[in-house]
Amino acid sequence: MDLVLRGGIVYGGGGATAVAVKDGRIAAIGSDEQVGALAERGTEVVDLGGGLLLPGLQDAHAHPVFAGLNLLRCELTELHDRAGYLAAVAAYAARTGDLWIMGAGWSYDAFGGAQPCRQDLDGVVADRPVYLAVRDAHSAWCNSRALALAGIDRHTPDPEGGRIERDADGEPTGVLHESAMELVSSVAPRPDAAEIRRALLLAQSRLHSLGVTAWQDAIVGDYGGWPDCFEAYLAADREGLLTARVRGALWWEPSRGPEQRDDLRNRRELARGGGARFRTETVKIMQDGVAENFTAAMLEPYLDGCGCATDRRGISRVDPAHLREIVALLDRDGFQVHFHAIGDRAAREILDAVEGVAGSRLRHHVAHVQVVHPDDVPRFGRVGLTVTMQALWAAHEPAMDELTIPFLGQPRASWQYPFGGVHRAGGRLAAGSDWPVSDPDPFKAIHVAVNRVPYGVDGPPLGPEQAISLETAVRAYTEGSAYVNHLDETGVIAVGRLADLALLDRDPFAGPAAQIGATRALRTWVAGRLVYTA
Asked: Which of 72, 216, 504, 506 has the lowest CB atom count within 10 Å?
């Protein structure tokens, strides 16, 4: 044996306390005595200290390279107010000689119901362009210099699928939504190969420290100001630096048509000819935007601040009729489709499209599903569309209470994140973080999935009837995500499966539900190789 892990609790092991690993696979499961007897000269023996040994956690929707770049640039995620953002931008500008100030991580709720504006940024950096992506990456905040370099003024029309925020006089405020972001990001400098590689490896280390052994990168391609990370993954895989298992979701460009399938197929073949850890058998289709900036596609109009209906229903980035055609073509090409849906209209458009390929073996899945009409909840199971939940979002917090619920109104606000309903109706759940949009820690998300309240917060739950059990949430982060990642030799601890494992500092099943979010990973193994230790 190469490795014996003993003295713990083996998840799903029926009382087993030890696991043996040989040639990267689980060779035996049993008691300390049974498995310990298999150790021989040269076998590494690890005492699990009574912790819970889980299958490696898998993030089915994340943007690790973008997250890594944020860590290398002007990172605003840990700040929560306008003054803090401006101080961070000024400090970053003072210590870097770069022409452009690039960053990300601000949040709408930090502005007290108002919107950020270019004049604020002009006050701290006026002579250099500033481009800051919002935390969810669906908007950008720019200074006047950046707008000028992009040629954006009061006469610039909104691009298809996007919106330029304007003041009462029609002047651009500095905030760009969806495809409008590309007006500035297209003239900003792109990160070079060395920076993207550094970002990937930095992000990989962070995810391994959380017990994550595999993920699906939800955008691999040229999307706005995001880096195309395809070559970085390919090189890291070939050089043996990619220790995680990664499935890349190739970006579907809404402005192009079915002819882009040739490019997607070419990239799929390049990845198949590389190393063993990176594959691009998936295509990402972003069907709408987000609720906070009114670009999520809704069946009924958004409300205004007084509770009256507006003329805004959000954006369907792909025409629904074309979407059905595209999904059928991609399914025929052997591509899994990874959808983005926030609004109830987007969810319905996607369900209608997948209904045309119901029974497909390609395991199509949809991330987010924030608002779902009750009539559509049972359809996920019926058409075989997995829901990849970002459970951390299913809670009361400022973006929810100040920027979402008032503009959705009832009963629509009560339809949010119906994970319990999908599960009870026989639908399959997977899980992901959407990092860097939100925290990548799986157990903070699992905590909210179970409690519908963030860890450490004492407050009312959001839609408690949509809570799921701890067992269901853990299975979503292991078996469920392994399913959508097509990693069938992972996701459970069983003899013959790959030894992708995570040791936790406690057994969350044995403690109170209010403490699930305190769980931490102590060690992480991929194919029996230690990739993280606390």
From this structure: 72
Helix (H) or strand (E) holding 332: helix 320-332
Residue showing tokens 């109009």: 301
By the 8 A CB rule, do 533 and 523 touch?
yes
CB distance 481 to 246 below 8 Å: no
Q: Is the CB of residue 523 less than 8 Å from the CB of residue 530?
A: yes
| Helices and strands per DSSP (H, E), number in the chain | 18, 23
Tell me whether strands 57-62 and 212-220 are parallel, antiparallel or unpaired.
parallel
Q: How many CB atoms lie within 10 A of CB 523?
A: 22
Structural domain includes residue 17: yes
CATH number of the domain residue 518 falls in? 2.30.40.10
What is the count of structural domains for the chain?
Answer: 1
Q: How far apart are CA 308 and CA 431, in angstroms?
A: 35
Q: Is the dihedral of CA 470, 473, 477, 481 positive or negative?
A: positive
The residue assigned the tokens 């230790």 is 533
3-state secondary structure string, 263-331? HHHHHHHHHHCCCCCEEEEEEEEECCCCHHHCCCCCCCCCECCCCCECCCCCCCCCCHHHHHHHHHHHH
DSSP SS3 for 389? strand
Bridge partner list, 124: none
**How high is the pLDDT of residue 225?**
65
Which helix (H) or strand (E) segment is 116 a member of? Answer: none
Q: Give DSSP secondary structure letters for 497-518.
A: SB--EEEESS-GGGS-GGGGGG
CA nearest to 152, candidates 124, 183, 114, 121? 183
Weakly modelled stretches of the chain, pLDDT under 70: 224-225
Confirm whether 38 is domain-assigned.
yes
Give residue 334's region: left, alpha or beta (phi > 0; psi -120 to 50): left
27: domain range?
Answer: 3-56+493-533
**CA–CA separation, 93 vs 461, rounded Å?**
41
Where do we find the tokens 């489709």?
337
In a domain, 215, yes or no: no
Q: Are 349 and 383 in contact (CB under 8 A)?
A: no
Please check whether residue 369 is in contact with residue 347, taking contact to mean a CB–CB distance below 8 angstroms: yes
State the Rg of the chain over Cα: 23
Crossing angle of the two packed helices 64-72 and 193-208, in degrees rounded to 10:
110
Burial of 520 from C-beta contacts in 10 A (0-12 / 13-18 / 19+): middle
**What pLDDT does 8 receive?**
97
Neighbour-count burial of 42, counting CB atoms closer than 10 A to its CB (0-12 exposed, 13-18 middle, 19+ buried) = exposed
398-445 pLDDT, tens digit per residue, is 889 988 999 999 999 999 999 999 999 999 999 999 999 999 999 999
